[in-house]
């Protein structure tokens, strides 16, 4: 069968016949793959991919001295959490503050 055919819809004792047609055979991915992209879109995508790879390859900035000091304070039992300071820092960070 090619996608067009007859189908019967029964409502009560009445059967209604109607043609059934396949509306599309290509998926969205197939359609987007078949549509050529402008060269500038491809160049922009390649540029973004290159920039993302450069950023990902850089080392993460870590203050190793601060990490060691916190580890020592935790091990020694002198590290205290300040929930109010933590909340302020979180709010400032999410608000886009410069000191975050």
Detailed description of the structure:
- The chain has about 100 residues and is an alpha+beta fold.
- The protein has a domain of about 30 residues.
- About 50% of the residues lie in helices and about 15% in strands.
- It has four helices and two strands.
- It has a two-stranded antiparallel ribbon.
- The protein is elongated, with a radius of gyration of 31 Å.
- The chain starts with a strand and ends in a 6-residue tail after the last helix.
Strand order of the largest sheet: 1-2
What helical percentage do the residues reach? 40-55%
User: Helix tally?
Assistant: 4
Largest sheet: 2 strands, antiparallel
Strand pairing plus helix content: what structural class?
alpha+beta
Distance between the termini: 65 Å
Rounded to the nearest angstrom, the radius of gyration is 31 Å
Q: Which ranges are low-confidence, i.e. pLDDT below 50, for 5 or more consecutive residues?
A: none
From N to C, what is the helix and strand string?
EEHHHH
How many strands in all?
A: 2
Shape: elongated
What is the mean predicted local confidence, pLDDT?
78
Beta-strand residue percentage: 5-15%
